[in-house]
Amino acid sequence: MLMRLLRLIAESDGSLALPELARRLRVSETMLDGMIEDLVRMGYLAPATASERGRGCDPAGAACRLCWQGR
After folding, report:
1. Long-range contacts of range 57-60, CB-CB < 8 Å, 24 or more positions apart?
2. pTM score, two decimals?
3. What is the spatial distance between Cα 35 and Cα 58, in angstroms, rounded to a whole number?
4. Is 43 left (phi over 0), alpha (psi -120 to 50) or beta?
């Protein structure tokens, strides 16, 4: 499931909102948060820098949580 999440993030350029990712994975947003935290802890994802977030990430929107830079 984690690899599928990574694929979805990569295919979407990291800009999918949490609700949409959760829907595509058929999991709750709470479960998705945990999966993202696991991927960060394992080094597969890292929070994007401020300049990267400025390219399509709305800080007030749900998509901001998924503005990630893959490693």
Report:
1. 57/15
2. 0.67
3. 22
4. left
